[in-house]
Amino acid sequence: MFNGLGKHLRSWCGKASGRGRGIGMAILLGGSFMLPAAAQASYPERPVTLIVPFAPGGSSDIIGRVLANPLAEKLGQSVIVENVSGVGGVLGTQKAVRSTADGYTVLLGSGSEILINKLINPSGVSYDGLQDLVPVAFVGTGPMVLVGRPGLPARTISEVLDLARKDALSYASAGNGTPMHVAGELLQIRSKTQMTHVPYRGASPALVDIMGDQVDLGVSTLAAAQSHIQAGRVQAYAVTSAEKSDLAPSLPALGQEPGLEGFDLNVWFGLFVPRDTPAAVVEHLQSVAQEVLASEKIKADLAAQGISVSGASGQELRKYMEEQVEIYREVVKTANMRAE
């Protein structure tokens, strides 16, 4: 149909005067620019895929499923959660980066796969999280928590650090290059201590060995550690934020401890689309996501996962990421962190 329209317009332009030829060409070109806008205005016309770059059952997966149904209701189309796990979130993020930039593939991303993995493995990670992804909405942040084995002879964070200066302590994380690993290394840098990092494949196995007195300390997500803290199976010392958290009000903040002032390192989540996704589509997704995140039910569901909802714009998320990557870069360089 459009080819036929073009032929008629060209024929009309050719028979018209110079002024008429200009008007005819304007109509032709104007129509060609209007077509994509019309297509974008009807977005979405089919189901949207939400990539979670980790296996089912973990925090990222739970958060993705908490968001999927309300996003679908607001979009008027199904939102299908697709778990693409592997290489610490790299495979799923890579799939999102390489997907068609049309708004039908959205990534639920966090600090490790978006930023940290590229810093510790620059030649092995093909994408740049700041360049190849467009932030849509800032889902939220949550503090990590420093915990210790039941038999560790320390009851406060200052006692833990004094002990670390005297003895060779070990600390567990959810894996090499995770925010928990970065937080453990940053703690050593700021406190001038040295501890042995023991990486695990996730927070749960790390906590099992801490509870079993196999590892001295651990940095965990609040969601994974909370029940063990409440049951007394591990000792909790502090959250990894600059200020106390409403999600764990009884715990001090590392950023308020003497010598650690300003310590502030949290887990965070955002929604992203590939670079070159049309601005109108990004704006629509952002508006929908912010409506979803304003829901009190969603806030409560995410709080259960140790996440305080932000609901900020994609632009604000980008600014936050730019600040975070400087902290990550400092730690990776100083601690000589490398991919395993």
Automatic annotation (TrEMBL):
InterPro entries for the chain: BUG, Bug_dom1
Gene3D superfamilies (UniProt xref): Bordetella uptake gene, domain 1 (3.40.190.150), Periplasmic binding protein-like II (3.40.190.10)
Keywords: Receptor
One of the Pfam families matching this protein, by short name: TctC
Family: Belongs to the UPF0065 (bug) family.
Protein name (record): Tripartite-type tricarboxylate transporter receptor subunit TctC
Organism listed in the record: Paracandidimonas soli
